[in-house]
Model the fold of this input.
Amino acid sequence: MTSVLRHRYGLALGASALSVALLSGGTAGALAATGTPSPMTSPTVSPATGMASITLTAKPTSVKAGHSVVFTGRTKGLKVGSPLVLQQQTNGKWMPLRATGKVKTGSSYAITTKLSKKGTHTLRVASATKSGKVYSPTVTVTVS
Done:
């Protein structure tokens, strides 16, 4: 009886060691190549796949300085009431604007703002979730 138990424990121990070796094989290669492990990044997530996403439309896309632009869209994987912020790309950095909104019932949102600086503006909507930050695709608005 003792030899049967030893055999079963030996098999379980061998299977565990093999599993650990196989699972760590991918990280060992990354560690050897860079010297430090790098964090994995993933795209934004939707409820069915565990990822969140935001769509974005601007109307109108061409305005006179000081006139209003309405940014609308839908979200997936964000709770109703989740905060959203409009961001503008300035000198290669994303800066938050004072225009904010929240996800409404039906997963839609609308953010209205006035753009006063003349030129071409690249904008996006951002939200923070437990799994990370989520960004919409960018839109371009021309102010004259």
